[in-house]
Amino acid sequence: MQHIDPDITLVTPGAPLSAVTHGGRAKCLQRLVRLEMPVPVTVALSFDAVHRIAQGEMPDMGRLLAPFGPAPLLCVRPSSEDPDWGGPGAILNIGMNDAQFVDLSDRIGKEAAAALYTRFVQAYAIHVARLDPDAFEHVTQGGQDGLSEVLRAYEEETEEAFPQDPAVQLAEVLRSMARAWEGTTARLLRQAKGAPADAGLGLVVQAMALGLGLGESGSGVIQLVDSQTGAPRIIGRYLRESQGRDALERRNEAVFLAHDARGPSLEDLAPDAFAELKGITARMRARLREEMQAEFTIEDGVVHILDGVRVARSARAAVRIAVQLAEDGIIPREEALLRVEPRALNELLHRQVDPEADRDVLASGIAASPGAATGRIVFSAAEAQASAARGEACVLVRRETSPEDIRGMHAAVAVLTERGGMTSHAAVIGRGMGLPCVVGASALNFHIRARMLVAPDGRELHQGDIITVDGTNGQVLAGEPAMIEAAEDDALLTLMTWADDVRDIGVRANADTPADAQTARNFKAQGIGLCRTEHMFFEADRLTVMREMIFADTSPDRAAALDRLLPMQRADFTELFRIMQGQPVCIRLFDPPLHEFLPSDRAGHRELAEALDLPLSDVTRRVDALAEYNPMLGMRGVRLGITVPEIYDMQARAIFEATIEASRDGDPVVPEIMIPLVSAKREVELVKTRVDAVAAAVRTETGKNFTYRLGVMVETPRAALRAAEIAPHSAFLSFGTNDLTQMTYGLSRDDAGRFMSAYVQQNVFPEDPFHTLDQDGVGELLKIAAERGRSARPDLVLSICGEHGGSPESIAFCRAAGFDYVSCSPFRVPVARLAAAQLAV
Ligand code: PEP
Ligand code: MG
């Protein structure tokens, strides 16, 4: 064997150790040593040394063993750079041999010494010598007979006696752990956890604290907070006469730590040791500036600290722990803000499937709106309403949703669709309502007429069957797994206040209805960045008037229908303004193609004919006349506003009258009016002229004055490129990145779901651009428009209101491009506030 001189470092306060050369565990142990905690003698092997061991070289065992004195008992544990990347399991009691057995028998008794030796031979045989576990796992007898049995089995399997030399044992352990790390399976596993392909492994060799003895002895773990809630509580287990992870693995034999009415505790058994452990863990928290779990051993009443690891935590606990550390003056507030992953807040804001629960996955789709909910399957909006009326939770299952399904979505606890992507109707509305939603679940066969779903494994699900939609990860589950409730506690509110103190980009919400606006306010959005007014027409009674308007052949007929819509819109806007209490509200004029408001099948046509008292043929003809080959690029947005200007006139009037109404008893309202789908300067001029005229008329009629801001929604590449000539007519530009992504790629936002996963898998797109802003392409248009717009009009307000507005990466992009605010669905506002704060820290 070739001898080398690798990096073998005794863990002392001043030793040159770092997490990137020796791993997180080695570094943490050094910190504990510096804090003068009772850590057994420890030697750290660097990544480099371990890599060379895997290649067949071996360190100088004399040098390695020297710090441990004669006849040591040792353990070896992995020390990867990030503890989450895992590593081979620890091996304990290395150095155990016949001579140790005699010695130990005197110290702890023959039975215990034999049990310890037996366990070591078993672990060595299975994990180091890699012998058949069947020959070792089932030792039939305990005590010395059991020991003889495993030693004999070892000899039979290897045709050699069990190695007695601690140096040989240790060398074999190091080699097997080093090789295990470099194996393909281990590499794939850690890469899945985010480790780089060449991540290194360090190893720590530590003197054993036995946990066995004639006085109080045992082992366990202790932490001072609850991992689920983050609330202060002494948590952990202690098992007498045990080692390593025994106390966790044999939980029902272990005892509590603090005094507990349910049973015995370490506090009762060994009050001094308990008090010392509490103090040590608290000191770790204060000095390592993190909530820690200590792994300890008690040997004849003496406490040893073997390791300290960051307490595992749910998102809820992460928030509470960070806030508490800052409130105790251990970390600054800015650091508390950085310690919480913004997206993890979704876990707090929505119900989730319990991570411990069994998941019976039927199929997966796109995780379009986070949170999970369980209900009975229904296949239509009407059935959803009937189900809600009976008080039964239901999941609305549709091929895709349309405005007609909104009432069904309100009645359902979750939505599942076969088609669509991140910006499809179901996804956008679902997120707005905070309704769990999975879209594009095309792996399931949707037989809507037969009222049946068929899973890829052939299972059939019928109307009334119970399923769970997990919109956080896109899974559709059979049955009703255990759930964890949303938990918006004081700690979150505190963290959010700190976030608002530091962030320097505004956060508004996309809110269409008074309910959305209330949610937006509750989440402390700084106004509404996008109110999609067409969503106000989806309620059944309004839909009928809307349809009358669409069916009007003459201008007076249309005016009559619009006159009926006016008070409804006015009331909506008045309520929105009141709820937002003087904060800005940006109202987008009508955007979708008209045919979206018409029924698509014959039964719907017949119903409409009855409602409007028209012959069926008239209805069918009108529906046909409005049909377009490519409605998303057709008569919608400002094109409709210019062709049928009465619609925008009515909306402008409703906005101004509501402004006067809401300003009467509160802060003066300054509404923002936004023109969608602009591609030419002239469109803005035409609309602006009419809106100004309506404003003048309302001022004259009422004798009241008010101001408003008119702006443009940048959703076409041309509008972005021509921003310099559009900006002088526009107080603000708001980027609708849903349509802008669709048009920049020439990629249908409603159909892309069909091939998006193939595209992402083959790396054509790094990610779904409707989900993650394409900073290279769409982002370049944003930057061009921002620069050109601001050069023409320096006070131009810039914002984003597409679905990307809530993602931390897009917020970083927008902030760097000098945007004033982002706007996202109300439930994403807290995520956006925290993400924005992290950028400013
Ligand atoms: C957009 O296109 O980005 C947008 C916000 O508008 P909508 O999703 O309503 O088309
Ligand atoms: Mg749009």
UniProtKB/TrEMBL annotation:
Cofactor: Mg(2+)
Residue sites binding Mg(2+) per the record: 715, 739
Lineage per the UniProt record: Bacteria, Pseudomonadati, Pseudomonadota, Alphaproteobacteria, Rhodobacterales
Function as written in the Swiss-Prot or TrEMBL entry: Catalyzes the reversible phosphorylation of pyruvate and phosphate.
The keyword Kinase is annotated on this UniProt entry: yes
Active site, UniProt feature: 425, 801
Binding site for substrate: 532, 588, 715, 736-739
Listed Pfam families: PEP-utilizers (PF00391), PEP-utilizers_C (PF02896)
UniProt keyword list: Kinase, Magnesium, Metal-binding, Pyruvate, Transferase
Annotated ranges, domain PEP-utilising enzyme mobile: 393-474
InterPro entries noted in UniProt: ATP_grasp_subdomain_1 (IPR013815), PEP-util_enz_mobile_dom (IPR008279), PEP_util_C (IPR000121), Phosphohistidine_dom_sf (IPR036637), Pyruvate_phosphate_dikinase (IPR010121), Pyrv/PenolPyrv_kinase-like_dom (IPR015813), Pyrv_kinase-like_dom_sf (IPR040442)
UniProt family annotation: Belongs to the PEP-utilizing enzyme family.
EC number annotated for this UniProt entry: 2.7.9.1
Any GO MF annotation of the entry: pyruvate, phosphate dikinase activity
Domain PEP-utilising enzyme C-terminal: 489-840
Name of the molecule in the record: Pyruvate, phosphate dikinase
Species this chain originates from: Lutimaribacter pacificus
